[in-house]
Automatic annotation (TrEMBL):
InterPro entries: Rce1/LyrA-like_dom
Annotated source species: Clostridium pasteurianum DSM 525 = ATCC 6013
Name used for this protein in its record: Abortive infection protein
Presence of the UniProt keyword Calcium in the record: no
GO molecular function: endopeptidase activity
Keywords from the UniProt entry: Hydrolase, Membrane, Protease, Transmembrane, Transmembrane helix
Record domain CAAX prenyl protease 2/Lysostaphin resistance protein A-like: where: 112-200
Domain of life: Bacteria
Pfam families the record matches: Rce1-like
Transmembrane parts of this sequence: 7-25, 31-50, 66-92, 152-181, 187-207
Biological processes per GO annotation: CAAX-box protein maturation; proteolysis
C-alpha cells in the first residue's frame, strides 16, 4: 500500500471514529454534553497525532492573523444570522432543530461553557478538521479538492445526528473556515475565528 493510500485509509478510520463520537454526543447523550464534546475532540486529535502528517500547522503568529480571526468570526456570525432568517421561510422544522442544540446549554453554567468553547472545543475542531483532515487531503489531492472534500466530510459526519440544520451549519462552517485556512496555511486565524464564533453564537448572541 502506498503512503497516500495509507493516509487516506487512516483518515477514513478517524472519520468513522468521529461519527461514532458524534452519535454518542448528539443522540445517545450519555453524560454532560460540553464535557463529552471536549473529550470527543481530544480523542480525535489524539488519533490524528498518530498519523505521519503534522496536525499543528502554525506559522509565526502575526497580528494580521489575529485580526483576521476576530473579523472572520464576526462575518461568520452575520452569515448565520441572515441564514437563520432565510431558513425560517424555507424549513418549517428550523426552530425545533436549532433549539435542540441550544437546549444543551442547560447542562452547564455559561462560564464553564464559554471556557470550553474558547479553549477546547473551537480550537480542537480546527486542529482536527483543518490541521489534519484538510492538510492531508490537500497534500494528496491538491489544495482545491482537499478543501472542498474536507468541508463536505465535516458536514457528512454530522448527518448521523439526524439534525438537518446542524449538517447545513457544518457545511457552511467547513467551507468558510476551510477557505481561510487554504488561503493562509496557518491554524491561527481559523482557531480564533471558530472559538470566538462559538462563544458569540452559543453564549453572547444566540439565534434563538
Amino acid at each position: 500500500m502506498t503512503e497516500n493510500k495509507k493516509s487516506l485509509a487512516y483518515i477514513c478510520f478517524t472519520l468513522i471514529l468521529a461519527s461514532v463520537l458524534w452519535y454518542l454526543l448528539f443522540v445517545i447523550k450519555p453524560f454532560n454534553f460540553w464535557i463529552e464534546m471536549s473529550i470527543s475532540i481530544f480523542i480525535l486529535i489524539l488519533a490524528a497525532s498518530f498519523s505521519k502528517n503534522s496536525i499543528f500547522v502554525f506559522k509565526k503568529i502575526a497580528l494580521k492573523d489575529i485580526l483576521l480571526g476576530i473579523f472572520s468570526a464576526i462575518v461568520l456570525y452575520a452569515i448565520f444570522y441572515l441564514g437563520n432568517i432565510i431558513s425560517g421561510y424555507l424549513f418549517s422544522f428550523k426552530d425545533t432543530e436549532i433549539l435542540s442544540i441550544y437546549n444543551n446549554k442547560a447542562q452547564g453554567n455559561l462560564k464553564l461553557i464559554s471556557l470550553l468553547l474558547l479553549l477546547s472545543i473551537g480550537p480542537g475542531e480546527e486542529i482536527y478538521w483543518r490541521g489534519f483532515i484538510q492538510t492531508t487531503l490537500s497534500r494528496i489531492l491538491g489544495e482545491n479538492k482537499g478543501y472542498i472534500l474536507s468541508a463536505v466530510l465535516y458536514a457528512l459526519v454530522h448527518i448521523i445526528t439526524g439534525n438537518f440544520m446542524l449538517v447545513l451549519a457544518a457545511l457552511v462552517c467547513g467551507l468558510y473556515l476551510g477557505w481561510i485556512y487554504k488561503r493562509k496555511q496557518t491554524l491561527t486565524p481559523v482557531i480564533i475565528s471558530h472559538a470566538l464564533w462559538d462563544l458569540i453564537i452559543f453564549v453572547l448572541f444566540p439565534l434563538i
